[in-house]
Amino acid sequence: MVTTSPNIKLMAHLLRRAGFGSTKEQLDEYLSVGYEKVVDGLIDDLDSSRINDALVRRYFPDQSVTHDTSGAGSYWLYRLVSTDSPLREKIALFWHNVFATGYTKVTNGKPMSDQLRMFRSHGLGKLDELLLKLSKDPAMIIWLDNVDNHDGAINENYGRELLELFSMGVGNYSEDDIKECSRAFTGWSIANSDYIKELAIRNSIMPYGKLAWRYEYKEDDHDDGEKTFLGRKGNFNGEEIIKIICEQPATARFISRHLYHFFVADEPPVPSWPYKDPQDMGAISILEKAYFDSGYDIGEMIRVLFKSDFFKSETCHYKKIKSPAELAGNVLRTTEEFGTPNIRISERNSQVTFMGQQLLNPPSVEGWHQGLEWIETGSLTERVNFASQHLGDLSKPGVRKIVGNVIAQAGDSMSAEECVDQCLSQLGAIQTSDYIHNTLIEFAEENGISDIDFLKDKNTAAQKISEVMSVVASVPEFQQS
After folding, report:
1. pLDDT tens digits for 150-173?
2. DSSP string across 341-383
3. CB neighbours of 132 closer than 8 A, spacing ≥ 6?
4. Cα–Cα distance between 10 and 469 in angstroms, integer?
5. How many angstroms from the chain centroid is the CA of residue 190?
6. pLDDT for 375-420, tens place per residue?
7. Are the C-beta atoms of residues 35 and 11 closer than 8 Å to each other?
8. Please, which pLDDT band fits residue 339 given cuts at 50, 70 and 90?
9. Rounded CA gap, 69 and 262, in Å?
10. Counting beta carbons within 10 angstroms of the beta carbon of residue 63, is it exposed (0 to 12), middle (13 to 18) or buried (19 or more)?
11. Of 21, 58, 201, 322, which residue is least crowded by CB atoms under 10 Å?
């Protein structure tokens, strides 16, 4: 096996976690910048180059207006595979799972896409500002019934989940705190909410079509009486409740554990957290300190995380199982299939669903349980087939580019081991176990790679290399990050 330098390993690790992996070409470009500057660039980058929205709107109206989950999900997948600001899409994916909002109840893809836009804009900023935006988000207001939260007749859904799943975690507040929190968010609604309820009663949105919802504060429906929340008393509105929440050590720990879970190593599902300590309390303490030192700034917490010894340690490499969206992002960015809008993005979006993750439609308010729960018999078959099919397809420009790079290293011949090492390097310096490495070499040898005259028969060489790439895509380390 080719010896890979620690700098290459670390940069490849960062690009898998902060984005969607890399090719050797991209990895070399980042290495020329340096690790610390790359971290800062990923976090501080405010611009995002991607497929031109005008082209999407021209050719695919359903992905432009994003009314249904297919159009909205396909449009997000476009962005995910084409952006040059991968951390912005990664943080949108992170918050989409924490603040899980589903199409099954919202039944309108436009506010779901708007919510993702808000995550991109504010997901690396201050938590209090993000929670304020979330509380005014039309998709969330519908999802957790705050449209039905009235003065004198509270609906506790949003107040409960704001505390339980969005900020503090179970065990750090009382049932009375939930009620007082809910009172503070009465009147936080959306325009035309009465009209929306009339349509719901008729069980139809026709003939008026989907509505472009917007936040509206209804002062006459807000409970402005005195409230007692987490030991504080006052005539609190939602803004004051969020300020109090963000001051809590429990919030610092809860958000820190979420960040560790997403960027470092798989933790148990959130419902287990009150009963199971974090696997690395030292790391959580570092992130908690960054939370308070930065004034609740998520981007600064992630900066500390990426530059920490616990993140850089090789013991946490390949310790996370890629979500279907992350796997698809890695594969499709590598194959470069979608340099321009193409109707096949809808098929790829469906394949992500088959792997167990329907974008914009998490299974519950808990989001998707991650880690090993991504893997079961059906989804594993879909994952392996997806990655192997696309990375072994010479019709894809990115695959042809990688295969051409391997051939360029060959001269007139190449051993099975050299072929495997080149493929692993070209796919982002993937490190495998000795057993997997030897198995890949055995496959390449049996496939006849070492018998080919690369100068005389480049077509056969390209086919054989693509077949090795296809098998590499199926190994555990490629399915992990």
Report:
1. 999 999 999 999 999 999 999 999
2. --THHHHHHHHHHHTT--TT--SSTT----GGGG--HHHHHHH
3. 238, 239, 242
4. 23
5. 27
6. 988 899 999 999 999 999 999 999 999 999 999 888 788 899 999 9
7. yes
8. confident
9. 24
10. buried
11. 201
Q: Which residues contact 432 (CB under 8 A, 6 or more apart)?
A: 1, 424, 440, 475, 477
How far is 264 from 312, CA to CA, in rounded Å?
9
CA distances from 376 to 328, 382, 384, 470 (A): 17, 10, 12, 21
CB 368 within 8 A of CB 391: no
pLDDT tens, position by position, 67-81: 667 788 988 998 899
Cα–Cα distance measured from residue 139 to residue 104, given in angstroms and rounded to the nearest whole number: 11
Domain edges within the chain: 73-246, 252-313
Give the side-chain half-sphere CA count within 13 A for 259. 31
Question: Residue 208: which pLDDT band, with cuts at 50, 70 and 90?
Answer: very low
Are 337 and 396 in contact by the 8 Å Cβ rule? The answer is yes
Q: Which two tokens stand for residue 469?
A: 């790439």
| CB burial of residue 152 (10 Å; 0-12, 13-18, 19+) | exposed
Question: How many beta carbons lie within 10 A of that of residue 279, not counting itself?
Answer: 16
Rounded to an integer, what distance in angstroms lies between the CA atom of residue 122 and that of residue 46? 11
Cβ atoms of 112 and 66 within 8 Å: the answer is yes
Point out which residues pair with 234 in neighbouring strands: 227
pLDDT at 421 over 70: yes
> Which residues 6+ apart lie within 8 Å of 390 measured at CB?
331, 332, 335, 337, 396, 399, 473
Segments in 19-68 forming alpha helices (H): 24-33, 35-44, 53-59, 61-65
First to last CA, the chain: 20
Note the pLDDT tens digit of each residue in 428-460: 999 999 999 999 999 999 999 988 887 778 889
- Residues 255-275: what's their mean pLDDT? 95
Q: The tokens 């952006």 sit on which residue?
A: 83
Tell me phi and psi for residue 48, to 5 degrees. Answer: -140, 115
pTM of the predicted structure, to 2 decimals = 0.93
